[in-house]
């Protein structure tokens, strides 16, 4: 922490994990003897690079690119790329650190990494985005490979960007391999990858509610934030499990549709036209638009699924949710709830599912995409979706078992941190001090 005092998001993610795993350390003196904690919080490698490209007006633009290769104890580095003006070293490190524990929880052989750039694709043409992706990959390709580091998408990196990135990697390396996941179906992508994080979030939430509350989505009112890849497919699955989803948001504001979000309209605006959420209220009678995205948590609900970005739900929002009767909060985004919000949920006995467990479905299906690429096969949607569901259910089970073993019965956050950590720590001890 001495070295990282100016990295608030990274420290926030680290403190949460270190606090949770305290009870484990007493039983495992070998972790201290092998410096596991000190090594765990220091990335194996962090590359920072210039990305220069030419915009539509012929002006040279310079952005900063990052890749953090955090931990390779249990597999090649794996984790997404984020393109957003708020991307900093602290943000990629927090995401990379979370990814180490998350990937371990999936039970697939993947280490943790993350990357991206402060490039803002808003208002940029396809051709500009392509040129940026090509410039970004021209440097990134030196550091990645199907057996070393396999990036994927994240905020503002979807099918279009992965296609451009893959094309440039193939051109420079003259190699057709599964070096990225989230690829188009025509060139090695997996069915159900697009849906995986949102669907997985609902499978996780449904299983946790079944085990801990003997309850489920049916008949519940759900508030979702965000309107990107994760949010849209969370809304889709929650609706098909019998819930009414009444909100969605973007960074400008949120919509409240008491009759239930019309997914075809939302997809048309957000996925097909890269439009703003405000347009939904212009098209759907009875729906309201409100400026300011954080107001989304004022809408009464039984279940809240934050699916936008880090620290989007603070302690004040948590108190409002609880006062309005919300009893379940599971995170589709990475670290959307502040530590203060998590404390409110704990004290109010809210069923709280942390992102590194609840949103692990995306990387889990990315892991399945890597397997399919290696075997040179493609599984059906149903087969992949069934594997996803079973992985999410087993994450609930392993989290609850770890929590119980260390005296924190029913605590999904402590359980996820312990279950994910122990596997990585054991592998680090076995491989020696590196
Ligand atoms: P997208 O780029 O598809 O969508 C992000 C959405 O969140 C957009 O609607 C964006 O709105 C909105 N948003 C961004 N910042 C804010 C904000 N401050 N308040 C409200 N809305 C905001 O990204 P994803 O759906 O892929 O990612 C969302 C979250 O899920 C991230 O935390 C990501 O790390 C996490 N995640 C994603 C996975 C995946 O498979 N894609 C896997 C696991 C986790 P706008 O259009 O205005 O920018």
From TrEMBL:
Active site: 114 (proton donor)
Binding positions (NAD(+)): 197, 229
Gene Ontology terms: cellular component: cytosol
Keyword field contains NAD: yes
SUPFAM superfamilies per UniProt: Aminoacid dehydrogenase-like, N-terminal domain (SSF53223), NAD(P)-binding Rossmann-fold domains (SSF51735)
Gene Ontology biological process terms, A to Z: glutamate biosynthetic process
Keyword Cell membrane: no
Gene3D superfamilies, alphabetized: Glutamate Dehydrogenase, chain A, domain 3, Leucine Dehydrogenase, chain A, domain 1, NAD(P)-binding Rossmann-like Domain
UniProt KW keywords: NAD, Nucleotide-binding, Oxidoreductase
Pfam families: ELFV_dehydrog, ELFV_dehydrog_N
UniProt site (Important for catalysis): 154
Domain of life, per lineage: Bacteria
PROSITE patterns with a match to the protein in the record: GLFV_DEHYDROGENASE
GO terms, molecular function: glutamate dehydrogenase (NADP+) activity; nucleotide binding
All copies of domain Glutamate/phenylalanine/leucine/valine/L-tryptophan dehydrogenase C-terminal, residue ranges: 190-432
InterPro entries the UniProt entry points to: Aminoacid_DH-like_N_sf, Glu/Leu/Phe/Val/Trp_DH, Glu/Leu/Phe/Val/Trp_DH_C, Glu/Leu/Phe/Val/Trp_DH_dimer, Glu/Leu/Phe/Val_DH_AS, Glu_DH, Glu_Leu_Phe_Val_DH, NAD(P)-bd_dom_sf
Annotated residues for binding of substrate: 78, 99, 102, 153, 366
Matches recorded under NCBIfam families: PRK09414.1
Assembly description: Homohexamer.
Family: Belongs to the Glu/Leu/Phe/Val dehydrogenases family.
Name the record gives this protein: Glutamate dehydrogenase
Organism of origin: Bifidobacterium subtile
């Amino acid at each position: 922490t001495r070295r990282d005092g100016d990295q608030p998001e990274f420290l926030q993610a680290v403190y949460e994990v270190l606090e949770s795993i305290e009870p484990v350390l007493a039983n495992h003196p070998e972790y201290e003897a092998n410096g596991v904690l000190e090594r765990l919080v220091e990335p194996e490698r962090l590359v920072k690079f210039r990305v220069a490209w030419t915009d539509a007006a012929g002006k040279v633009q310079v952005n900063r690119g990052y890749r953090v290769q955090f931990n390779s104890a249990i597999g090649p580095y794996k984790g997404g790329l984020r393109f957003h003006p708020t991307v900093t070293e602290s943000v990629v490190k927090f995401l990379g650190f979370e990814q180490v524990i998350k990937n371990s929880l999936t039970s697939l052989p993947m280490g943790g990494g993350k990357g991206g750039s402060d490039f803002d694709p808003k208002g940029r043409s396809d051709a500009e985005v392509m040129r940026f992706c090509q410039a970004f990959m021209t440097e990134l390709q030196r550091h990645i490979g199907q057996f070393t580091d396999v990036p994927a998408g994240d905020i503002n990196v979807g099918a279009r960007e992965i296609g451009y990135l893959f094309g440039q990697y193939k051109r420079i390396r003259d190699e057709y391999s599964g070096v990225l996941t989230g690829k188009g179906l025509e060139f090695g992508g997996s069915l159900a990858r697009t849906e995986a994080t949102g669907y997985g979030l609902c499978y996780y939430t449904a299983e946790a509610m079944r085990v801990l509350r003997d309850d489920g989505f049916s008949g519940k009112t759900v508030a979702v934030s965000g309107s990107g890849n994760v949010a849209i497919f969370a809304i889709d699955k929650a609706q098909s499990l019998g819930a009414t989803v009444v909100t969605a948001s973007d960074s400008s504001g949120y919509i409240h549709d008491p009759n239930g979000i019309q997914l075809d309209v939302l997809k048309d605006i957000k996925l097909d036209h890269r439009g703003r959420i405000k347009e939904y209220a212009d098209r759907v009678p009875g729906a309201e638009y409100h400026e300011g995205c954080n107001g989304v948590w004022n809408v009464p609900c039984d279940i809240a699924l934050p699916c936008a970005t880090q620290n989007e739900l603070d302690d004040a929002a948590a108190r409002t949710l609880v006062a309005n009767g919300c009893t379940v909060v599971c995170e589709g985004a990475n670290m959307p709830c502040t530590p203060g919000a998590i404390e409110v949920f704990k004290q109010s006995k809210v069923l709280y599912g942390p992102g590194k467990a609840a949103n692990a479905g995306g990387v889990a299906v990315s892991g399945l995409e890597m397997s399919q690429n290696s075997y040179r096969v493609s599984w059906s949607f149903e087969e992949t979706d069934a594997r996803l569901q079973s992985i999410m259910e087993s994450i609930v089970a392993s989290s609850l078992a770890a929590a119980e073993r260390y005296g924190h019965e029913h605590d999904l956050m402590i359980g996820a941190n312990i279950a994910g950590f122990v596997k990585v720590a054991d592998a680090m001890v076995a491989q020696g001090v590196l």
